[in-house]
Design goal:
With 107 residues, the protein is mainly alpha-helical. The chain has 2 domains: 56 residues, no CATH class; 50 residues, no CATH class. It has 4 helices and no strands. The relative contact order is 0.12.
Length: 107
């Protein structure tokens, strides 16, 4: 079994910088429960690396519309994994990965 190490924000920044400096566009996903610090971590990484090497693409703009959540009986669970337009978010990630010479707009 390999040893476990704690991931601190400085260590995550160092790892992200190593990945970014390889020159290939790489998508780094940060997941966690509400309030776990995802925004804090990603903001720290982007601030350290700068906008030429890193950007944030949050899922916040991909919540299902309230009317759809109501129809699916999920309105009271808004923000749960099954209340996002996942296919639309995956489409954005694919654009970010493969459409390098175009401006990409997102919610």
């Amino acid at each position: 079994m390999s040893p476990t190490r704690s991931l601190t924000i400085p260590l995550l920044i160092e790892l992200a910088r190593e990945i970014a400096l390889k020159g290939e566009r790489t998508l780094l996903g940060v997941t966690g429960a509400p309030g776990a610090g995802k925004s804090t971590v990603t903001t720290a990484i982007v601030s350290a690396l700068g906008p030429e090497l890193a950007v944030i693409a949050p899922m916040d703009g991909f919540h299902m519309q309230n009317s759809k959540l109501h129809d699916l009986n999920r309105r009271d669970r808004k923000g749960a994994p099954d209340t996002f337009e996942v296919d639309a978010f995956v489409g954005l990630l694919e654009q970010l990965k493969f459409q390098r010479d175009e401006i990409i707009y997102a919610p």
